[in-house]
Amino acid sequence: MKTTRLPYLLLTIFGIVGVALLSYFFILETEDLSEGTKGENEQIELSKYPGVDIITNTMEEETYHKAIHYPKFEGEQLNHEINEYLESSQQSFREELAKKDKQRLKMRPANFYITFDIYPVEEQLYSIVFSEESYFGGANSLQSTRIFLADVSKDQSIKQTDIINDTKETREKLYALLLNAFKEHETYSDYLFEEDLKSWIDRKDNTFSNMYLTNKAMVFKFDKYEVTAGVAGMPEIELPYDQVREILSTEWVERLEIKGSVGNAEIDQPKEEVTEKETDNKGPAKVEGTTGKRVALTFDDGPHPENTVKIVDLLERYDAKATFFMLGSRVDFYPNIVKKMAEAGHELGNHTWNHKDLTLLSSDQIELEVKDTNRIIQEATGQIPSVFRPPYGATNKSVESVIGIPSVLWTIDTLDWKSHDPNQVLKIVQDNVKDGSIILMHDIHGSTVEAVELVLKYLQKEGYQCVTVSEVL
Ligand code: NI
Prior knowledge:
By secondary structure, the chain is α/β, with parallel strands linked by helices. It has 18 helices and 17 strands.
């Protein structure tokens, strides 16, 4: 008879968890409503990491476009620290913006992005690596990074100097390790300035704030020009845990010990089951022979946990296919959404890892942006993206030579991100659409979901078939 109790127990547990989750969502919803000013849009999403939500805060003004992604924890202290950082970054951006010419900015608005990568180290311990970019047109793109080692169980961030036992000997040891890793690095070896690395390690005020942990290594992320030539961008050097034992504080030798042994396993390698699948999902033959008019709907900057899902549903309802140009940093959070998108037969496009202007990067950096994004999409779906779209449409010969897959722009810009007005988007489509049009929208905006429905209805009525961008090319 004992066996019958288990289901009841489980039901009770599910019940309790369910109620807890519901009230949690409710709290999120109400919080969401109370915040946000005009022109500003804030959304809260659950991530695949327990205890971490993702906030996306976007704002479109006449002179600038802001998009900030950041994690929100359950504890107040961690959130407070992160908010302080976000506030001061935005303050610097606004100060810089105030120095620029208003009229020029109205023609080409400035951009401010903050995005982050999250690395689980152990249960309740994450490295949060923020990348920040301000872009004011021309060649001025300011990039920086900020690292938080978030101990969720204690609701506090850990200082790098708690992890590294900072003495003269350990600094020497660390220098030797970094020097060696740079020299052996495929990309960075040619660009290292040894003297700069030396003066970095010798700096009295060096708190190793550029260091973060992953599940297998200690990583040092340097600023552009800090220890390498500019073409190397912001180099990251990984030191596996079994190498760094001697420089760790006693507490952390123990804490990271387990990792050392797991360290070399290929946990992070993408699964290699990809190539066969990739070919059979291309170019449905059914379109051939039809003489009807075709358009390609394309969606940039996603995936988004709600809006992308809604758009995929709408597309199915109208028997339409589309192309999604996605950011690797977002695919990382929502692999399941991308998987469903691929299974529904939509085309997968690469839109770089975190939306940098590629014309400002070295070819190694461009390659990394493209490769990492291909890899994460491949991990999620088993397919390699078939098309690429450069952020801001900014491209040149050296960008093109690195990408390796066709680069696709658009013929109709709906300006959905600017108007947030579904009827305005529809009107732009009505005024411009013709056979072979490539329509640009952004699946991160709620207003775009409404626009998609209007556009699909209109296109159907006018006898257009919505196909992937590769099919209209
Ligand atoms: Ni974009």
